[in-house]
Amino acid sequence: MIDSLKMRFGLLGRNISYSFSKGHFTEKFKDSIFEGYTYENFDIEDINYFTELIKNNPDLRGLNVTIPYKEAILPFLDKLSKKASVIGAVNTIKFTKSGKLKGYNTDYYGFKKSLEPLLQPHHTKALILGTGGAAKGVAFALDELGILYTFVSRENKEKTIRYDLLNETVFENHTIIINTTPLGTSPNTDNFPTIPYEFFTEKHIAYDLIYNPAETVFLKKAKKHGAQTKNGLEMLILQAEKAWRIWNK
């Protein structure tokens, strides 16, 4: 008899009815070998509700974490994997056999594996639009790939450039542009990062972590100027399956 107390998984976030993860794992669990497995959304307004959530759901085995809690969740965890500690953001939580909460980051893995096939010798520098938890995972992946990067922010921060300072020279020197912001996510599909799209060329990769819609305004505008484009769907699938392996190891 299957022990149902070990088969509950879920996604932690805010305003996550659109979530990829629930659909992905619900489809996965249709296979008869996963009888009794469930995946649900835990949509909380404030990260401080997390403690109560865990208390009320003692049979959870694993959680994914999404916007806006990838960094805010850290103080609530008992330990972090080495890579999650370096990245400073968590998107996967494992409930260990001893009852501890251990945080991992599988975003970097999904991004890295999905970007690698697109890379050419001239792809040596990248711009990362945004500075949140997702951006940190992307930066870690670029480090592993040996690609230099600069964050793009509205504010003056270390290792960043402001949006209003982006110009043709910056684009010539950075041939990978990655959107890690939520701008353009359904239902607000008309939104997009304010950057000089006219400086994209056929040498550029425009990568959007957003997967819904499949082609954001960011990607459409970049493609218009010849850039190779990719959305975040493959990244999400890869990071989800990596999380699955972590939960079951």
From TrEMBL:
Gene3D superfamilies reported in the protein's UniProt record: Leucine Dehydrogenase, chain A, domain 1 (3.40.50.10860), NAD(P)-binding Rossmann-like Domain (3.40.50.720)
Pathway: Metabolic intermediate biosynthesis; chorismate biosynthesis; chorismate from D-erythrose 4-phosphate and phosphoenolpyruvate: step 4/7
Ranges of residues in domain Shikimate dehydrogenase substrate binding N-terminal: 11-93
SUPFAM superfamilies listed in its UniProt record: Aminoacid dehydrogenase-like, N-terminal domain, NAD(P)-binding Rossmann-fold domains
Keywords: Amino-acid biosynthesis, Aromatic amino acid biosynthesis, Oxidoreductase
Domain of life: Bacteria
UniProt keyword Amino-acid biosynthesis present: yes
Transmembrane segments: none
Name of the protein: Shikimate dehydrogenase
